[in-house]
Amino acid sequence: MPDSEQKTAHHGHDPVAAEREALLRAEIAKLKERAARAADATDHNVRPGRRPSSKAVLGIAILAAILLGVGFTTGYLPKVRRTESITAETKADTEARPTVSTALAKRSDTAIDLDLPGSIQAVTEAPILARADGYLKRRLVDIGDRVSAGQLLAEIEAPELDNQVQQAKAALQQSYAALEQATASLEQSRANEQLARITAQRWSNLLGKGAVSRQDNDNYQAQFQAQSAFARAQERAVAAARSNIEASKANLERLNQVQGYRQVRAPFAGIITLRNVDVGALISTGQTLLYRVAQMGTLRTFVNVPQAYADVIKPGVEAEVAVADLPGRVFHGKVARSSSALDASSRTLLTEVQIPNQDAALLPGMYAQVTLSIRRVNPPLIIPGDTLLIRPQGTMVAVVRPDNSIHFQKILVGRDFGKELEVIKGLEEGQALVVNANDSVQEGVKVKTVKLKEDGAKR
């Protein structure tokens, strides 16, 4: 307890002063009682029409004045002096306290605008590569041209492919000829098989009558079996010739389809954003990039949302997109989707924002500033950056208690906004914090406080 408070308590409970005051009160009461009795006696003893003696009245007045003076000197005046002394000591003690500037820990706004950088991209973009070997014969579009789905973009001259088509057609004709030959051979083998069957049957009948030898009959029976086997082989040859025809047809159809790739067409409506070849350039299948086409009606940008806001990012959240090259213009979009998982290295949520671009003012590849309008159910505490103290014991702030004493409180800091800090743990809303604490601010020391306005000025 400070000295001023101890002195106040001591004077407030002084038994001698209390006893003197009680005696003074008793003497005054007795004096008043005697004056009243004297007045009554005078009224009875004095005859009507005669006043009391002036000396008696004067004596009573002098006695009363003496008693009041004694009481004032011995009771009231010391009490006043003690009060003034206590007040002076308290004032001196208060003025001796260090003066500190304070700011309150407060909740951040529920609705905030989160500014994040992003790069604008096309929602649908496709590279167009060649699917036929050859040379570029014609180029019909260039960068910046708008194209429709299926529009002819370029033609490729492919002489080797044309030769392959001709070879495939010839091979198909050969397959048809082989089929005709195999069919003729099959018919002949079937006729020979029928003749061998009849002959073998006759010789078998003759053998039963004993007209021919068994050896001769066996020879004709063997000839019949050989003709039957040859007929079966010819049937398989016909089937193989037919399969060759189907294979030749498929190869020709494939080559015809590849030959159609000599005409390069747009896969969808959009704008040519890249042209990579000129007339006469050598084209290789699947390796030469001819064009790049992108749809421009709706664009998108990807932003990395910090972990603290990941739980409030949902499809449909409003977004504003600004580009430095288009001052004064703000493009409105919405969150389309997010990855639903944080990147382990950056602790951020990949989020896609789609922006309508009907007038084609935005271009893919532009750097953009994306502002997400989000609302938080339980926003964190915010404190001025000048209240943060880095001590060996950890990160802390100097809290001013209700009795104006100092307590150093450890806190867990979130994001750093420069002038303000986000506090995750350790403080309560409304607590007063010392701004720019110096060496005079120690644990338990009582201080005088001066509140700061939000702009940092004292008030």
UniProtKB/TrEMBL annotation:
**What are the alphabetically sorted keywords of the record?**
Coiled coil, Membrane, Transmembrane, Transmembrane helix
Question: Is Coiled coil a UniProt keyword of this protein?
Answer: yes
Q: Cite a GO CC annotation.
A: efflux pump complex
Q: Name one GO molecular function term.
A: efflux transmembrane transporter activity
- Domain named Multidrug resistance protein MdtA-like barrel-sandwich hybrid: residues: 127-289
The record's NCBIfam families line, in alphabetical order, gives: RND_mfp (TIGR01730)
Give the record's family classification: Belongs to the membrane fusion protein (MFP) (TC 8.A.1) family.
Query: Mind telling me what this protein is named?
Result: Efflux RND transporter periplasmic adaptor subunit
Organism whose genome encodes this protein: Paludibaculum fermentans
